[in-house]
């Protein structure tokens, strides 16, 4: 069975958010993933982030490809728009939906197989175009759904469950996202909800292409000794560059950390990110330095997590293309077909 409905009953005293919704209102069906799968923790973090942001579920469109990771939108935001597309094609389907209606919040959920192999071209083009979305890769280093083959993000030298050593070089999607011009780039770990929830909230508030790579161990096929995507390995090699507090535009700014170690970043919608820097010299706004930092730590076997890059004045695809503000389905016949004189003008501009 791939779909199990949850009972609707809940405790009357469950906390409510500003809209009067409980946490339960942001959940989906019961997960059918393996018990302990990292992907379920990411689902929980997305639910928590949307609950805390008091997002209206009908304003969210969740779009995915194919894989265990791409199944997860069924398990969160049961009252949102959803489309489970084709393997590796989430970015183009999402881009189309976004161009037709920019008023929704777009959550793209994908896997490392989905985005780093068959969908690599789609991943690249939607980030370089600046589609306003949160692009989450649930990265376990394997094709979980098809029984644990190495994916393109598996590190060279890592060992499969059957003892085979991966001889291919790995693709680092965070490094690629930085090179491709994504305006918000972060990496986190499914086992670190304290870090992941504020990153997701900040990415939702970000107006542009926000990419989050979440290391998410596959307990069935990639959680053994010799794997570099197992819970134990990531816990031992995680180098958190910063800790984030997300402050929505409606909340007063109260920053508890020590002065001098906190950087406040204001986002387009008035929300603020309070970053407690763990690496004191880390510059969040320097794309080239972020790449260098990432590669330097990777060469030492460390996995850098945290918010790695953010552009303060991001632009999205709609601004680049100067598209009409209103969703296309609200335009009337006259707006869609402005007549002969408008056509003559266009033709004249092309001569
Ligand atoms: C066009 C196409 N090719 C291959 C497959 C088979 N297939 C389904 S899921 C998958 C890989 C999924 O890996 P990933 O995206 O990492 O997700 P995970 O299951 O690990 O979360 C593959 C190869 C498919 N469904 N469609
Ligand atoms: S096979 Fe791996 S990725 Fe898929 S549900 Fe099981 S633990 Fe998760
Ligand atoms: Mg995978």
UniProtKB/TrEMBL annotation:
Signal sequence annotation: none
Locate the Thiamine pyrophosphate enzyme TPP-binding domain: which residues?
Answer: 66-214
Q: Name one GO molecular function term.
A: oxidoreductase activity, acting on the aldehyde or oxo group of donors, iron-sulfur protein as acceptor
Output the InterPro entries linked to this UniProt entry: 2-oxoacid:Fd_oxidoreductase, THDP-binding, TPP_enzyme_TPP-bd
Q: Which Pfam families match?
A: TPP_enzyme_C (PF02775)
In its UniProt record, which GO terms are filed under biological process? cellular respiration; small molecule metabolic process
Instruction: Please provide the record's keywords in A-Z order.
Output: Oxidoreductase
Q: What is this protein called?
A: 2-oxoacid:ferredoxin oxidoreductase subunit beta
Originating species: Pseudolabrys taiwanensis
